[in-house]
Amino acid sequence: MAVMTGGQVAVESLIAHGVDTIFGVISVHTLDMFDALRERQDKIRFIGTRHESAATYMAYGYAQVTGKPGVILSSTGPGAGNTLGALGEAHAASVPILHLTTDVDPEFRNSGRGDIHEPKNQLKMFESVTTWNTFVP
To answer: Given 30, 61, 72, 82, which is the most exposed site by the fewest CB atoms within 10 A?
Structure first.
């Protein structure tokens, strides 16, 4: 069996579940996902935006028009935080959004050392605008 990166596993899982479009902002934190998306661009397309909020509202509109979940890929910390307004709108309207985001390296997580885009308990910030969220180590 071939060894896959985390990005490849995520992209293959999305394709297997019928996802054909992802919205987001390219980030240093998500390069493995973008490599995997590029490898599978025959099955899934990435629509890039200049801001995470715009990407999330695009995913929201996509979900409303197609009936499929809108999928957003964002960076960690402030980039992930930029999705909250649109996620809140989607949550209130019962529009299905899947938000995939990253976190800092494990040795910096919740350390307060100021690693690039280090959030303070990033998962907790999504609780008020999601029905469910989880952390995958």
So the answer is: 61
